[in-house]
Amino acid sequence: MSQHVVTRFAPSPTGFLHIGGARTALFNWLFARHHGGEFKLRIEDTDRARSTEAATQAILDGMRWLGLDWDGEAVSQFGSAARHAEVARDLLAKGHAYKCFSTQEEIAAFREAAQAEKRSTLFQSPWRDADPATHPDAPYAIRLRTPTEGTTVIRDEVQGEVTIRNDQLDDMILLRSDGTPVYMLAVVVDDHDMGVTHVIRGDDHLNNAARQMGIYTAMGWDVPVWAHIPLIHGPDGKKLSKRHGALGVEEYRAMGYPAAGMRNYLARLGWSHGDDEFFTDAQAREWFDLGGIGKSPARFDFKKLENLCGQHIAAADDAALLHDLSDFLAATGQTPLTDVREALFRKGMYCLKERAKTFPELLEKAEFILADRPIRPDEKSAKMLDDVSRGILRELTPHLQNATWTREELEITANRFAENHDMKFGKLAGPLRAALAGRSATPSVFDMMLVLGQDESIARLTDAAR
């Protein structure tokens, strides 16, 4: 693509960063990065009554956690209100807009009558073609003069060609009677001023595109490339809502899903590259295009999310995974890892990250690292440390004390001991797990001994054998 690509994500700071919004941001980010373009962030805070600083911060934090870096500073839409009003007055001066003195009561009465008469409730302002000499000295709104004949064609990269009759479009308000610009105008002006070339957003905005194109055309501005993506549905095929589970990005972060897995899953939620399910960020940037986005709503599937997250944890660089784990602990207010435990995690990550789908699962597997002596076994493990088992551990411990601390030697020592006592190794593994970790679901006993080292392992076995 020869054109310098500029995309944007424009969330409203009236609540958390919705998982659907996060996917929209990801698609815009991937498209811009694929084409070597720019990805910009605009906070659409024109709704002053509902916009909050806390919600803005939550959006920024969510974007940073997902690794969706934006170019330049995040822009406040409210900060450009004067510019939006200037464009409305410019359209008025050029004859592409007009003053409307109709009151809210008059508009409501018109619609009520139209509904009763079963005709279109699309408001037709009596001031559209009024002689300026008849204008009263009263507050007025500025409305866009929309063509009443012909059609508006939206050429959409996802939805295809969508045609809307102009007589189905109203003369939308650009500037309210109190002088404040409306959202629909602000979006167009901001996108133009920010140089946005591709508008990638949810298909609930598709009808807005037809109305917004009227402003582009009247101002003589280039219309961006449209790409309206289907919304995300729950497993039952209905629009994703709280009843389906977590909606905010921060909830997924708190549940311990790795950001790399979330990016992979969200990319696959409505977009595909052949049959590829698991892929890296680099591959996603290389492959992403608008042609891969489907027209049907995607269904959120927690099992697929967990499966992909598990694959990303398993494939992650150990140092990077430890960094992400530390961030998770900090974000959820948990005790940070000491230097000693960090060292043990680095040593044992190879046996921890397999089959862990979330950071809490990783921490559960690492309980043998996190636990302090004396180890307090859980209820299930405590049953593995009866008098017979403690006697076995007392006999086994001297053999391990004299063993070379390698996996091969430890396996030989333990298996030989089991054979000499006419038992299968499984009979020995249970008490060893209970002694070393206090849990029944752990990495292999040999992995735990190698990670803990000989002194700590012998000490824990000795404690448990008493």
What's the short version?
This protein has 466 residues and is mainly α.
Folded structure, characterized:
There is one protein chain. The chain has 466 residues and is mainly alpha-helical. It has 20 helices and twelve strands. The strands form five sheets. Strands 1-2-3 form a three-stranded parallel β-sheet, with helices on one face. Strands 4-5-8 form a three-stranded antiparallel β-sheet. Helix 3 (81-93) crosses helix 5 (183-193), helix 5 crosses helix 6 and helix 19 crosses helix 20 (454-465). The termini are far apart. The relative contact order is 0.09. The model has no long low-confidence stretch (mean pLDDT 95).
Layout of strands and helices, then pairs:
Layout lengths: L5 E4 L9 H16 L3 E6 L9 H14 L8 E2 L4 H13 L3 E4 L3 H13 L24 E4 L6 E6 L3 E6 L7 E3 L7 H11 L4 E5 L3 H14 L5 E5 L2 E2 L15 H6 L4 H10 L12 H7 L10 E2 L2 H14 L2 H14 L7 H14 L6 H7 L1 H4 L8 H4 L4 H15 L5 H14 L4 H12 L8 H8 L1 H12 L1
Parallel strand pairs: 1-2, 2-3, 9-10, 11-12
Antiparallel strand pairs: 4-5, 5-8, 6-7
Helix pairs in contact: 1-9, 3-5, 5-6, 8-10, 12-19, 16-20, 18-20, 19-20
